[in-house]
Structure formats: C-alpha cells, structure tokens
Amino acid sequence: MLLGLIITIAWIPGQEHGPDGKVKTLEEWEAGRETPNKFAQTPMAKVVERIWKVVVRVADKLYLFLDGLAGGEEKERREHEREAAVMEQEMAEVDERQRGRSVAEVEGRVSPFVNGNVGH
User: Fold this and answer.
1) What is the largest CA-CA distance in the chain?
2) Which of 96, 115, 94 is nearest to 104 (CA)?
3) What is the rounded CA–CA span in Å between residue 9 and residue 6?
4) How many whole angstroms separate alpha carbon 80 and alpha carbon 74?
5) What is the mean pLDDT of the chain?
6) Tell me, what's the pLDDT at 100?
C-alpha cells in the first residue's frame, strides 16, 4: 500500500493552468484536455488493447461456462436483455415510420373532427 501511495503521489500532476494563466476550473477540467503524445494511437497501446480484448473475451466465456454449470442464470439474463433491446429497436423503427402520419391514419380510422362535422 505504501508503494501505491508513493507512485500515486509521484504521478499526480501539478496544478494545470488555462490559456489565461489562471488555475483551471472544474468546468475546464470537465471539457478534457488533449493528450500530447496521443498514447492511445501508439503501436504498443494498440497491442495492449487487442490483448486486453482477447483476455476479456476469454474470461467472459469462462464465466458463462461456469455459470452454466451453476444453473445458467447469467446466460438467461443476457438473452432476456438482448431480446428486450431488439424489441426496443423494433418499436423505435415503428415509431419512426409512423412519425409524420396523423393519429387517425395510424389507428386506421378517420376522426369526426377532421372535416369539422361532429355527429350529434
């Protein structure tokens, strides 16, 4: 823990200043900052990312295998979530197709208020 504390203190950057020379506000920090060395674009970072994705995929497969031995509740939950996402996407597509059409057209009927004649 002591080693972690020392490394953390050594890696914490000092105060950063904005273009006007003032210490950055929380809003300026929220906007983010450009990484000067574009770390995520380096070849080594890409290799680490690929290795990490493989490790995560293998760990997930192992987890689902062990879950299957214990009853398979996680697999069922994931399938249910996947089905719900597909249903939600289909509903969004239906809503998008119906957008721009009147309520009467969508419901397949003509409202008596469309032509102004209300039956008594």
Assistant:
1) 86
2) 115
3) 5
4) 10
5) 77
6) 62
